Amino acid sequence: MLRNATKVNNSKHVTDTIDEIGFGAKTVPASAAILKAVEIGKGVASLVEYCFCGCAKLESVTIPATVKRIGGTSTFQDCTSLKSIEFMGDSTWTPAICTFKGLTAITKIDLSPVTSLTALGKDAIRNCPELTELDIRNITEFEGVGTIVNCTALAKITLSQNLTSTAFEKTAFRNIPSLKMINVMNWSGTKDDAITYKTNVISKIKNQSLKATYADITVCFYVGSDTSSEMKALISGL
Fold first, then answer.
1. DSSP per-residue letters across the chain
2. For 145-167, what is each residue's pLDDT tens digit?
């Protein structure tokens, strides 16, 4: 557990001899509440539910590829100073519910390294007013009412081309009025498929976003995993 890790200048090094870290409850010990940074050793294989919940001074977390299980419930909830979360590899997640809720300082969340995470639950990304960029390219299903909510500065989202037909049935997106760009990576469909995708996604986002109003939303399709692979011929017709 984090409370047994070594504390150095308001940071903690979680040693390679510890297999699992977290508190498993919403109440955070006083010793953890002052954390500003956490270095997770390569021997740590699991982060439990509520792992960093309520660590209000925590500013950065790097999760190594050796972490193979993450309890998705409220993992980083109310980490109000958190500015950086870096995932170095893939992990198996339990349902992602309230995972990134209340991250009032975060500007970017990149879940692209976490290929096993294919669904987000209720309030997974909520009340993140400074968030401008979100990469959820592996997510194919939004399982709860209000998955991405009240992220009023969110301007760019990277989505999967494999969104299920029910992905938006539970009002996944609410109050994201600054959205201007959607990127779709590893596109393998036709131009007609792209037009259909764009129409469906934009209409559903707009319809679900309460009273938010939108300017034009650009949708870009890429044949590879980065923006250097842009399908210029395809985009020109959209």
1. -GGGSEEETTEEEE-TT--EE--SSSPPPHHHHT--EEEE-TT--EE-TTSSTT-TT--EEEE-TT--EE--TTSSTT-TT--EEEE-S--EES--SSTTTT-SS--EEE-TT-TT--EE-TTSEES-TT--EEE-TT--EE-SS-SEE--TT--EEEE-TT--TTTTTT--EES-TT--EEEE-S--S-HHHHHHHHHHHHHHHHHHSTT------EEEEBSSSSGGGB-HHHHHT-
2. 889 999 999 999 999 999 887 78
Alpha-carbon span 211 to 201, nearest angstrom: 17
Would you list the domain boundaries of the chain?
1-94, 120-238
Which pTM does this prediction carry? 0.85
Q: pLDDT tens, 171-204? A: 888 888 899 999 998 888 888 899 899 888 888 8
